[in-house]
Amino acid sequence: MAGNTPQTSSNGLDLSQQVLATACIAVVNNYRRSHVTKLEAIIMLVETISGELFATPGRVSTVTGPYLAMLDEVESELARATDSSTRGRTTHSDEPAPVDEEAPLPEDRSRAGSVEPGEPARKRSKLDYSSIDAAVKCRKFQPLSPSLEQTNEILKNWSQDPKEVQRYLMYHKFGPEFHKSGWTEIIAGECINLDVVHTIITSSHTVDKQTEVLGGMEIKYGVLEAASKKIATDSDWYAAWNKSADAVKFAFPHREAELNGYFAFISKYFSQANPSAHGRVIRFNKAVRNRVGSSCRLELTNFREFEDLIFSHFNADGRQRNDPMDTKSSSGSSPSTSNKHDPCQKWNTGECSRSAASCRYAHVCSFEQDGRTCGRRHTKTKHHKDSKPKST
């Protein structure tokens, strides 16, 4: 019986637990000494703890948590030490700087700012941009506007630590309400997904998905709870755009005139087009913003740069003119004529996001009595059970 009792050390820990703790602390110390990267340290911790607790996988995350917090603390210490040494080089002092005997030698370190804190030192040659410089000299480029120059400088600066910028914007006391992945797109200078913004506005579910890469494995968490809803009407677009523009203006106040000008530009298309053609305006807007988000030389108000997109979406021979989502097809007939006389069940329950013109089904009452459908322009909720509908 005594042989089944686990041995304990003087500090009251099970010997196996003490061995595991010692191994994990060693990993943290290796990271502190820059012998391994933070990513390698995380992998080593997970493998060590999983190997010891293979029979109780639910405890792995619990045991790993404190050691991951230690790694974060060490990372902060290394960053502060780097800042201090940088400032120290700009001041005059007669006292020699302390030397870490276990730290890599200066000649083994790569250029400042080229590696993450804790990443093992390595030599690498200076980056060569001569081919790009030659291309610039042999081409003629239009100068950028002052606003675009300022935007590019801000994005370049933020690219050094986008996660820190994201935290700053998200938790700023005056920051507008906006979702995490939307801030990520703004910080990277990418096109904001307005369908996601629309989904958040019209749904109580979360739509943010987070992805981390551990070793060669991609881990996704915060799974999408609600299917993304597509913007289908001009009112859907206005609501999503205004919310997104508010966030962009907070991050880039100098872009307010650009955003207001683009809003007026798209609003004219909505006001001049029939409701059945609003789908083309929505797709055109997405194409324009994708082009601007993919270039550092374009603004949303460079309207002359979008003439090909205007042709493809609105000209009778344009590639993007016709789409199954449009009410009218190129032949002038409705693609869903066979369904148009059927009542829209979603509209009758208040769930249809389309207008009466763009919906495949008729926005009429679906209440049935004596084998006949009401068909009036009200929802079936107007009916009382076993009674005639109210007058409309």
UniProtKB/TrEMBL annotation:
Q: Biased-composition ranges for Low complexity?
A: 329-338
In alphabetical order, the GO MF annotations are: zinc ion binding
- In this chain, the C3H1-type zinc fingers fall at 338-366
Q: Residue ranges of the C3H1-type domain?
A: 338-366
Q: Which InterPro entries match?
A: Znf_CCCH
- Is Zinc-finger included in the keywords of this UniProt record? yes
Keyword line:
Metal-binding, Zinc, Zinc-finger
Q: Which domain of life is it from?
A: Eukaryota
Region described as Disordered: spans on this chain: 78-126, 320-350
Protein name per the record:
C3H1-type domain-containing protein
Q: From which source organism is this entry?
A: Suillus discolor
The taxonomic lineage of its organism, from the top, reads: Eukaryota, Fungi, Dikarya, Basidiomycota, Agaricomycotina
